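Support request, please re-run this one:
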Amino acid sequence: AKYRILESKALLPPQLPCRNMMNGDHKEHEIHGVESYIDDVLTVVVIGASGDLAKKKTYPALYTLFVKGFLPENTKIYGYARSKKTDKELHERITPFLKKEQPHAEEQDMKEFLEMCVYRRGQYGSAEDLGKVVEEASKFEAKAKGNSKKVNRLFYFAIPPSVYADVAAAIHEVGISKEGFTRMIIEKPFGHDLDSAKELSKKLEKHFTEEYIFRIDHYLGKEMVQNMLVLRFGNVFFEPLWNNKYIDCVYISFKEPFGTEGRGGYFDNNGIIRDVMQNHLLQALALFAMEPPVSIDDGGSVRNEKTKLLKSIQPIKLSEVVVGQYVGSKDGKKPGYKDDETLKNKDSITPTFCSAVLRICNQRWDGVPFIMRAGKALNQRKVLRMNCKRFLT
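Re-run finished. Output below.
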């Protein structure tokens, strides 16, 4: 439960009153200048609700927020995508993942949460289609609002970056809340490379300022990653040893025992390096190796130290990089990467495995190789593994 609740806190502003504070006896408070939202009306639009990310990550995260008491009582969740689905079909699709996320939740919790969730079909960049959803949401908001409650809207982008700008334009035209906050949650990958990321930022800036936009990497919600700061800076035993005097090398591994399994079309445009290494694992490396921030409660301080660390990484040498692509098993029971039916290019050389050595040029880590490894269809599952080999002289 820790994994998803930590991850799902990224979906809403940082102030999160507990359920026992919802009885009306707590004082209104502000954190980072944003009033508590728990008594307000909240509309969540999951754009790309028929996709893999929404099914496995977004809806389970929202469900955990609901079970833990972090969603307002007046919340409605609209699934929005191009596929033709009914509310019932959406519920059947997400229910197994909700149960897996919160296996001990009450049956009534599941029933009430699913009643919040509806599905509407539309084109991603169509202001007309999205406007119909917003119009329906407005009726719910007006009914639930009462006299004093605000109306907040949150749009979660579980879609490819190629349609981010079009969706943002549609939201700007028809989706802005006039009585509360409006937020867009944008998942990685944010662009295909540096140039496309900059271009995408420019397109979003045409419609929204940064206060509207939250770029997130769901990997930062992993329990091990969340605990990294405490492990390092709150532990009087580890911190003195966290340097090149006592650490010989560091392994950061991401291993999955399964292949693309129907996601070959998406994966082939990215590969394991863009899909996992340059975002998930690089974030983990930055938290592992950065210098102590001024405050761990201040996101800006953590970001600044991570940025300093990333700027200290030397260019990677091709002689220290290994890439590969998995093939089918000899007995034919497990297909190879090119056997994926969704893969159009059967001559693809997109890597599904990569190992690379990163070297950090600063006083703490000079001479310590950071070996980053990621791959699919391997012999074991390791979401995050860091091995520090210490040597004492």
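Residues 1-35 have pLDDT under 50 and may be disordered. The chain is about 35% helix and 20% strand.
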